[in-house]
Specification:
With 398 residues, the chain is α+β, with helices and mostly antiparallel strands. The chain folds into three domains: 3-146, 2-Layer Sandwich (Beta-Lactamase); 151-285, no CATH class; 288-397, Arc Repressor Mutant, subunit A (Orthogonal Bundle). The protein is built from 20 helices and five strands. Strands 2-1-5-4-3 form a five-stranded antiparallel sheet, with helices on one face. It is globular.
Length: 398
Amino acid sequence: MKLADIEYTCECIAGISTIPIRIYERAHLLQSYGLENFSMDPVSLYEEILLTYEESVSYYSTPFYQFYGIVKHHSFTIILGPIGRTDYTQQEKRDYAFALGLSPIDFDPLLSAMRQIPVFTPDNFLHLLLLINHYFNDTKKDISEVMPYLQLAQNHTFVTAQRETVASTSDIHEMPPHNTRSYEKEMLNFVREGDVNGLNDFFSSRRYGRVGITSHEQIRQQKNLFIVAVTLVSRAAIDGGLYEEEAYSLSDMYIHRCEELFSLEAIIQLSYEMAIDFTKRVFSIDARTSLSPLVASVVTYIRSNISTDLSCATLADHFSIHRNQLSKKFKEDTGKTLSEFVMYEKIRRAKNLLAGTDKSFSEISYYLGFSSQSHFQTTFKRFTNQTLKEYREHFLNS
């Protein structure tokens, strides 16, 4: 198929569906369609990852609950998307804008453009990808060949199994069904609460969850299920207070480790180790058992909304309590005032951003709500005895 034919087809698909489409030759962008109203292309966050996919048809789920589709044809790669969620909280919008290098104000027009894309279910989107793949590559694929972790992630189904239950394909078919939604919800709650003992007891009391056949090759199937697991567990850990940068970095590390394994037993064992590791990290954030339910909720809210207004008055209003009562209770439980704790958390987030991203000091300062970069610099040095530059260079050189 000639490039002109690919361009014509993609232009027509974008015109019918209004889903943005891009054509690459190897890693070079040749043409794009459906981006006329976009102030920038959000695929820039994931372009490098998407272009490494080798399958003829596949998809990618972003940390912002959106999907991109990938279809490969010889030396050409077609990337469609994003489709999916656009109803973000204030903090999520600020996070998305920050990741793109935009201010919240500049992000609004981009979000409005994304909201003009019609609603597609992941299942419908994948069928569109299969149709495009059939046209370009003259091959027919069943949705089950590429859908396993899309379907599971969409249904929030965490699947796990113990060694002895996956010895053969017939064993998997014979597994009795369980309420996987209930199983997942209960398991992820242990992660979210940092309850390591509870999670260990939970695993030991259940021989398996329900495992569906999602690949004709068992090793690939188990790796697909692992990707679902680490995605859901990392998001639960973020809800429990683990910073996004740490959670995503850890998630990538575990997926990389999983891809290097070629034993069902090893992959399943890594699933347990991964869940326990995330849970331990949530627990280590603070001694949650010493906090009252109210203060624990306030701590989680602060960590999940670190770049929004976190004044005592705002927090008191959010939790429907008088500000003086909230201040007193928080100080009793944590030994810190609310303002001290908020600033401590901002500096902790700043450390992660300085070490894990190439964002400028001014971008980080703005994202974290400091009145100026000089205020950010002064406060950071007061907490760490290092300048922003010194802290970043320390990690770059270590």
